[in-house]
Amino acid sequence: FFFVSSPISEFNPKQNRKSNNLISFRDEVLKRYRKQEGYVEEIPIEKPANHLQRVVWEAFECPESSNVARVVAVVSIVMITISIASFIIETLPSIRSEMVAQPITVLINGTYQHIHPGGETRYFWIFFIIETICVTWFCFELISRFVVAPSKCAFIKNGPNIIDVVSIVPYFLQLIGLFFQKKDGVSGFSSTLTVLRIVRLVRVFRIFKLSRHFK
């Protein structure tokens, strides 16, 4: 490339234009060469201006920034893995059949009748407790990242963050379903259970949360 030892102040306007054109041409050539070689230019990441917010932001967004950030990343990966494994095990027919109290046969007025007691078994509550622990961490992580985000608008529009929100919604819908189940009694149990099973499928989106930790 072409370099000039004379100060720029000594250039006349025509020489300045030629120099600027040469620099622009050089930058364009370098840009094309990098693109052909598969070089991906890093986009500058906006960080919080406040020191404390920056520390918290790096702990959740930059796993390589510190030991605390590495611990946070490991905990997040473990929680995601446990949640996904729990969801898969929960869908197994042998487990699913044990999650709801089975109908019982009783003798009423000389005739045997099948009665569905409703409610959930200990298997249901085991998975529910696991889900509660995982969702508690996901909510803490999501809220913390939102609070320290340099741009709240960009955070809300970010695709992975939308997936994070969608993946925890089923838990709160499940709480609402359980509330109405207790309120309506056995009559509303079957319909509530069906809705909950459909809503739980959305939890599979949590597998995409792993992409944040394996870039």
Strand order of the largest sheet: 1-2
What is the radius of gyration computed over CA atoms, rounded to a whole number of angstroms? 29 Å
CATH H-level homologous superfamily name of the largest domain = Voltage-gated potassium channels. Chain C
Tally of individual domains: 2
The amount of helix comes to: 55-70%
What's the overall average pLDDT, rounded? 73
Subcellular location: Membrane
Domain Ion transport: 70-215
GO molecular function: delayed rectifier potassium channel activity
Protein name: Ion transport domain-containing protein
List keywords for this structure.
Four Helix Bundle (Hemerythrin (Met), subunit A), 2 strands, Ion transport domain-containing protein, single chain, 2 domains, VG_K_chnl, 8 helices, transmembrane
Notes on the protein architecture:
It is found in: Membrane. It is a multi-pass membrane protein. Keywords: Ion channel, Ion transport, Membrane, Potassium, Potassium channel, Potassium transport, Transmembrane, Transmembrane helix, Transport, Voltage-gated channel. This protein has eight helices and two strands, in the order ααααββαααα. It has 215 residues and is mainly alpha-helical. Helix 2 crosses helix 5, helix 3 runs antiparallel to helix 5 and helix 5 packs antiparallel against helix 7. The protein has two domains: 41 residues; 163 residues, Four Helix Bundle (Hemerythrin (Met), subunit A) (Up-down Bundle), CATH 1.20.120. Strands 1-2 form a two-stranded antiparallel ribbon. The N terminus is likely disordered.
